[in-house]
Amino acid sequence: MATINYVTKDGGIYDEALVQNVLTNNLVKQVDFVNNTKSFTLTNITTSGYQAHTRAKGFNAGTYGNEKEVYTITQDRDIEFYVDSMDVDETNQDLSMANITRAFVEKQAAPEVDAYRFMKLAEIANTNGFSETVALTKANVYTKLKDAIKPVRRYGSQNLIGYLSSEAMDLLERSEEFNRNITNQNVGTTALESRVTSLDGVTLIEVWDEDRFNATQDFTEGFEPTGNKINFIVCAVPEVIAVAKHQAIFLFAPGEHTQGDGWLYQNRLYHDLIVPKNQINAVTASLSEETAGESGEPGDESGEPGDESGEPGGD
After folding, report:
1. Could you report the per-residue pLDDT of 80-126, keeping only the tens digit for each?
2. Most buried pick, 78, 82, 104, 242, via CB within 10 A?
3. Coil/strand/helix, residue 19
4. Domain residue ranges in the chain
C-alpha cells in the first residue's frame, strides 16, 4: 500500500506554519538516544581544584570523574483525521485535507508544543526555587524582570532569552522605573514602535497567545490552561534541551487504506524538554496571580493603565 509522506509532499506549507507559530524552536537540540530507547545520556566532567604547592618534590594528586545522567522523554501525542471524499466534494473543498492539516498545525500542534515547553520551564524554575508569583505593575515590572535575569546572567546575556506575556510587555513599555524618549519621524509612512525587544543584551520575545503561556496545562484533548498565567520566563538557551525523538506525518489517499472512501491523515509527535540537573539555575520564572480564565487590565495596583491623569508612563 502506497503512502505519502506529508512533510515531503507539502513541506513548504507545513514548515511555514510550524516555524511561524512555534516560539520555542531555538530551544531544540539534537541528542543521541541510548540503544533505540526513549532515554538519552548527558555527561558531566568534574575535576578537583588546585592545592597548595609545598615546593617539595612532586605535585598534589587531583581527582576527576565523568558522571552520567539519564533523561527520559514522556510526551507522546497523536491524532488521526478521516474525511469522506463526498464531504470534501460537497463542501466545495472546504474540508480538503490540505485545509484540515493546515488548521491542525496552526491552531493545535504548534501552540501545544509551546504550551508544553513553557509549562515544563515554569515547573523547572519552581522546583529549583527560581520562581515567584507576583502581581506585576508598571512600578515593579522592570525590577522584577532584572531580578529574574540576575540568576542566569552567568551564562552570558547573548545566550539568554526572555519570554514575556503581552500584559508584561505592556507594563514594561510604560514602566515608571526608567526614562526614555520616543521620537516620531515623519519620513514616508509614519510608524511608532514602543515594544522593548532587548534588556541588558537579553532578547525579549512577546507571547501573544496567552493560552499557551500557563504554568499548568490539561492535555486530555489538545491543551487547555488550568493554572497560573505566566508573566515571563528567562532561560539560558544552551542549557535547555527541547528534543523530538519521533515525528510521523502521513496522508493516505482514497484506496490506500481500508477505513473507507476518503482521505486519512495521521500525525504523531514524541517529544519533551529537560534542563540538566547541574544547571538548575538556567531557568527563572515569574507567575501571575491570575489563573486561566481570569482577565485583568495591566497597569498599576488599581488595574488601570497609566497614572491618575490617564496618561501612560507616570510623570
Report:
1. 999 888 888 888 888 888 888 888 988 899 999 999 999 999 999 99
2. 242
3. helix
4. 4-35+68-178+194-291
Residue 314 CB neighbour total at 10 angstroms: 16
The total number of residues shown for the chain amounts to: 315
Residue 178, CA distances (Å) to 2, 139, 141, 143 in order: 63, 10, 11, 10
Q: How many CB atoms lie within 10 A of CB 225?
A: 21
Distance from C-alpha of 315 to C-alpha of 312, rounded to nearest angstrom: 9
Where do we find the cell 523530538?
Answer: 244
| β 198-199/202-207 pair status | antiparallel
What is the pTM assigned to this prediction? 0.81
Element (DSSP H or E) covering residue 88: helix 85-90
Of the two residues 162 and 9, the one the predictor is more confident about is 162
- Measured in degrees and rounded to the nearest 5, phi and psi for residue 210 equal -70, -20
Asked if residue 138 has pLDDT above 70, the reply is yes
Residues 6+ apart with CB under 8 A from 230: 118, 122, 163, 165, 207, 213, 214, 215, 285, 286, 287, 288
**Residue range 224-250: mean pLDDT, rounded:** 93
Q: Helical H runs in 108-244?
A: 110-127, 141-149, 166-173
Average pLDDT over the chain reads 83
Mean pLDDT of 254-276: 91
